[in-house]
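Need tokens for this chain, all 392 residues.
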Amino acid sequence: MARSLCAGAWLRKPYYLQARFSYMRMKYLFFSWLAVFIGSWIIYGQYSTYTELCRGQDCKKIIMYLGVWGNLQGVVKCQMEQAPHLDFGTELEPRKEVVLFEKPTRGTTVQKFKEMVYSLFKAKLGDQGNLSELVNLILSVADGNKDGRVSLPEAKSAWALLQLNEFLLMVILQDKEHTPKLMGFCGDLYMMERVEYTSLYGISLPWVVELFIPSGFRRSMDQLFTPSWPRKAKIAIGLLEFVEDVFHGPYGNFLMCDTSAKNLGYNAKYDLKMVDMRKIVPEMNLRELIKDRHCETDLDCVYGADCRTSCDQSKMRCTSEVIQPNLAKACGLLKDYLLRGAPGEIREELEKQLQSCVALTVTANQMEMEHSLILNNLKTLLWKKISHTNDS
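Here are the structure tokens for all 392 residues:
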């Protein structure tokens, strides 16, 4: 009897295992389906926030094209963004749509065009004595075919592009080492020198991949892909030199309103090159853009990512004085970049100088003197350490 019961149990065991297997398979399929559903929903949620990137005019804000100019490779940019509307009254009016190529009109003389350009520069850069020199420089650049005269199409193209801060800055700094060369333009397209490495950290990922990388892990990954320390020091010296170029330059002071790593690059010789200068604006221009803006806290008084003023609580209006100079923002970007892997014999001094640099404010007494002193000390410290290496 016992044997028959055992035999019956043995015969029923495969059915039990089969039922258990079916249950586990259903459980596995259910959780797999659930994971796919949740993952798809997350991807959709992330993607939906970027759908505006592919809508008509907005698409033009971020798309760049690779091209060839003669034997040189370059980057072709279009009308990346509309120029900010300047209102010289007390209130910011709703921005009017800009119609490209509406000026100058047929019959406009060269003298009249020069007056138009002069007035534009006076509004952007302030009333400076050397604006006439800049106007003449623009006319020489506008003569694209170098036939000694500026045709109406050339004047229309130059006028449209002069509304863009990046184009204007490339013309002003065309002889400076760290500004990409302006290779040519046509209509509202312009072509600039291609930069081999388009991020300070030397690694650029597609935006789809960036969505799924946690910010903390991304920062660690960035540090892993940086060049050797002497090469980082050379790139940093280049950024400090660029800060000098735009700080009280020949045509006024320009403010760096987005000092992020993605806007800086370098070439094969580790010379710094700016890859995006759209948020580098004339100080006079910024004052007009931000003054009298309604505010409740200082957070309401920000242009770009880094140009911050304060909120006058008595008037509930933004002031026009930017709090941090370019050098302090550049040092904030360079601090972790340079301290990681820094030689032990200069690390303490380097950290001390960088901290003094980050703490620099526009309102400090003798700010311009401190600015020059800190900048020169940093450059000297870095250059002494790498001047004898192959990376220099």
